[in-house]
Protein: Cobalamin biosynthesis protein CobW
Amino acid sequence: MPAKIPATVVTGFLGAGKTTLIRHMLAHAEGKRIALIINEFGDLGVDGDILKGCGDETCREDDIMELSNGCICCTVADDFIPTMEKLLAREDAPDHIVIETSGLALPQPLVQAFNWPEIRTRVTVDGVVTVVDGKAVSEGRFAHSVAAVDAQRKLDENLDHETPLSELFEDQIACADMIVVNKSDLLDEAEASALTGKLKAEARAGVQVIRAAMGALPVDVLLGQGAGAEDDLDARGAPHHHHHDHDDEDDHDDHHHHDHDDFESFTVTRPEITDAKAFAEQVAQVIRAHDILRLKGFAAVTGKPLRLTLQAVGPRVDSYFDRPFGGEEPRETRLVVIGQSGLDRAAIDAALRS
Ligand SMILES: Nc1nc2c(ncn2[C@@H]2O[C@H](COP(=O)(O)OP(=O)(O)OP(=O)(O)O)[C@@H](O)[C@H]2O)c(=O)[nH]1
Structure:
């Protein structure tokens, strides 16, 4: 029987730097043929677009596959398994498969999907890499008190003090084989080592916690961990028991909860903008006013042939020109907005289009 193809799951909260890390890995793949599967939250396909736009000859467009928008544990049979099978049916099988989960997904259901008979015989989960936004966690912007929450939970089993954010974070940490404290360029030494220590204490025994800036890690560090995670799910914090109201019919295992219901995303479209800097400030203001978790997309700037990529994680907005607009592509501005449920869509839409 041919050896199983190793697959690495890259998980981590919204905006932690998963796409950046993967982009670096593809650009420094050292001859490894890596196929990529992306499961994005929000309907704009920004991550896929950023990766496809990287222009590196080692990452061919047809090596990048996108799963339809949605939670892997709901769409495993209809979407994930067929995508994997398509990939495995190719003549030139990849050396390694990398799967980027949505920033709101739990890694456990995905790892579990590798136990499907069609997949299990041919692929193994080489490792789960959890990317952490070092700056956001240090600032307590989410998962502000994982330890405190844990202590509370231990005191009273009947209480559910968890917010969806800290719950997701805990699940992503519990499933990790390697934790990447990313954005270390924004941390001082004391912050970085405090966070590293805290994460080591929370992770399973022996999990490596490493620092990175812009996800720049050697491919050999990230891949080739040989964890066989699909055989070891129980040790990886089965998702919390938690009721969910995903929809009326409950056709999932009870222990699958559906945090993504607590989040929503929508797209705002507007014509060209005139001033890139002023627009970035406007975006930052809207984010602060409406508690938006993540905003990303592309803008057309009057007089500029290149497309402006906008990326905001919390109130920090990054923007850069990435590539010319394609011939068929409309010169317009499209942004995907992600936040906890209850966003005032009309107000956000108006504020971003003003
Ligand atoms: N300063 C700094 N910024 C970073 C670093 N890594 C990523 N970023 C920026 O953080 C933003 C989000 O990065 P992504 O790689 O898109 O994050 P992601 O986890 O893929 O985001 P989602 O797919 O939305 O969950 C981008 O603006 C990146 O340029 C880092 O190490 N340092």
Notes: The domain at 262-353 is CATH 3.30.1220.10 (Hypothetical Protein Yjia; Chain: A;domain 2). Residues 143-149, 240-257 have pLDDT under 50 and may be disordered. The pocket of guanosine-5'-triphosphate is lined by residues 12, 14-20, 47, 103, 182-183, 185-186, 213-215, 294, 311, 313, 318 (CB under 6 Å). Residues 263 and 340 are 4 Å apart (CA to CA).
